[in-house]
């Protein structure tokens, strides 16, 4: 996030904090006004739910719920739930060694090269089951 946007968001978080503090001093009833929830949700979209809930002394689960509620209008981008990262290219393995040891101490070692490597897993399962 660029510095200007973060500074603007910090100002909005400060404004939300002042709004919550004032509401707590003068509140009539237990319900937090929607205006304050919207301010908190907007700040949480920038600073994260945990940081914002700590700063504004809010229940993090309720804030997260409010962020994703339809009444908020989704004026901020939704956080992706899944991000696929490319797997780095791994060179093909040219050889493999399978080793097994029985309870009586006897050992078996199989050294595979080339095309036989593709069958190493099935060979290992077959030997393991005995």
Report on this structure.
The protein is mainly alpha-helical. The protein has two domains: 70 residues, no CATH class; 35 residues. The chain contains five helices and two strands. It has a two-stranded antiparallel sheet. Strand 1 and strand 2 form a beta hairpin. Helix 1 runs antiparallel to helix 2, helix 2 packs across helix 3 and helix 3 packs across helix 4. It is elongated and about 80 Å long.
Element layout with pairings:
Layout: H1 3-26, H2 34-47, H3 49-56, H4 60-67, E1 95-101, E2 107-113, H5 120-129
Antiparallel strand pairs: 1-2
Q: Tell me the strand percentage band.
A: 5-15%
Radius of gyration from the CA trace? 29 Å
What level of helicity do the residues show?
40-55%
Low-confidence stretches: none
* Arithmetic mean pLDDT: 77
Q: Which H/E pattern describes the elements?
A: HHHHEEH
Task: Note the main attributes of this structure.
single chain, 130 residues, mainly alpha, 2 domains, two-stranded antiparallel sheet, 5 helices, 11% strand, elongated
Question: Quick gist of this model?
Answer:
This protein is mainly α. The chain contains five helices and two strands; from the N terminus they run H-H-H-H-E-E-H.
């Amino acid at each position: 996030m660029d510095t200007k946007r973060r500074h603007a968001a910090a100002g909005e978080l400060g404004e939300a904090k002042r709004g919550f503090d004032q509401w707590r001093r003068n509140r009539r009833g237990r319900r937090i006004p929607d205006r304050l929830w919207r301010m908190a949700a907007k700040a949480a979209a920038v600073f994260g739910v945990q940081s914002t809930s700590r700063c504004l002394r809010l229940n993090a689960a309720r804030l997260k719920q409010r962020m994703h509620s339809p009444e908020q209008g989704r004026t901020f981008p939704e956080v992706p739930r899944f991000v696929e990262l490319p797997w780095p290219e791994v060179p093909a393995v040219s050889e493999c060694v399978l080793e097994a040891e029985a309870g009586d101490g006897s050992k078996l070692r199989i050294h595979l090269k080339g095309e036989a490597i593709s069958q190493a897993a099935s060979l290992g399962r077959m030997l393991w089951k005995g």
